[in-house]
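Our consortium's second objective concerns turning raw sequence data into structural hypotheses that experimental partners can test. To show how far this objective has progressed, the report includes one record in full. It was chosen at random from the queue rather than selected for favorable results. The single chain below, 450 residues long, was entered without modification.
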Amino acid sequence: MNLFGALRAAMHVPELRRKLLITLGLIIVFRMLATITIPGVNSAALADLYKSNSLLGLINLFSGSGVSSGSNAGISIVALGLNPYINATIIMQLMTVISTRVKEMSKEGDLGRRRLTQYARYLTVGLGLLQAFGYTRLFESFSFQGQSILPANISFAETLGIIIVLTGGTVVIMWFGELITEYGLGNGVSIIIMTGILAQIPGTVISFTNGFHAQTLALFEFAVIGIVVAAGIIFVQQATRKIPIQSSQRVVGRQVYQGRSSFLPLRVNQAGVIPIIFAISIMFFPTIFANFFLPPVGQTGGVMGELATWLHTYWNPFGPNVIVDVAYEVFYFALIMGFTFFYTAVTFDPEDAADNLKKSATYIPGIRPGAATAQYLARVMSRITLAGAIFLGLVTVVVPLLTATLTGQALNGGLYLGGTAILIVVGVSLDTMKQLETQLLMRQYRGFIR
């Protein structure tokens, strides 16, 4: 059964049909919100800012084209996207490692998880207010031909209104993501981010076509590289290390259950696309910090103003300083590596896995149950996670640079986002397809992932 056949089969199951319709409906509403813009925005100045700082492309990646470019550039009410929520999630997950109390709370079952989720929501609102204020300062400070993005004489009440609207947009799409996760199909946050990426594809293809003119060879090379990268992502996302396990003979009442051989699958990329999302969110921090201290148009802001202007100008993948560009890419690669190991440690605990094997009278041949099994699993997991982390770094950092070299095209924001966008779209699609396949198999339908 192919994908479309599986979808048709799912539509005949009331529960799955409801999940699919809820997911589709929330996505449509989200895309409608992304078209509602804040009034009074200078489109020319915003488009120029978009060209001068390619980091805005990464920001736009998470807002679903919330900050649009071009002749009709505008700032939508969901321009912040899920950045505050992702940052809040990062902070709460770090707290589970740093704070013993938070770690104990995370192990209190459903009640503890709900409390942590509530704390993350409160933190999202606080971070959203700060980031909205930073954006407002940026839009007031950046000038193009003597005009700022937002009116220079904007009142305090209007500024406060913009901050509240942008923060409210983040809260709404955070709620949409949670609704999709609970009542829909797939991870809601990831699906919303993927939807934003897919919404940018037509404009990106048109810009590439206009830039290349009649360079059919370059377009063909881009298509081939994209297909190869997508195939590599699928291969790595599906790859697992199978650890052989053996269950002991058990006697339950008068029944004797013979031992059997099986395997414990460990995914090479256990963290999925989450490290990319986390790393990009961290890369926003210097720019967000700089936005608080940017001086108004035509004025100087002292030492902090000069530092903010420098960060805004240079802290992006295509700034005028080559040394800063290299540092940016190295830092980005290191963040991806670090978050891959961190999130893998959060999602897979070798000690818990060893305890579960021991409780079920299952063992790894040649390895003693208990601590020795946990050490063995940790060693194997660290090795395959290293391979997965390097792959994620290569796709998001090295592939765009290599593509620019092979095609002879200048590196730009759209190309830079290519590897990251493909990785997120393919990764989220595979995870969602697996969930749908699981639901179908539970109802005795054939899956579509071979």
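The partners drew two points from this record. The beta strands are 67-68, 74-75, 143-144, 147-148, 240-247, 250-252, 255-257, 261-267, 362-363. The chain has one domain: 3-214+271-347+412-442. Both points have been shared with the crystallography group to help prioritize constructs.
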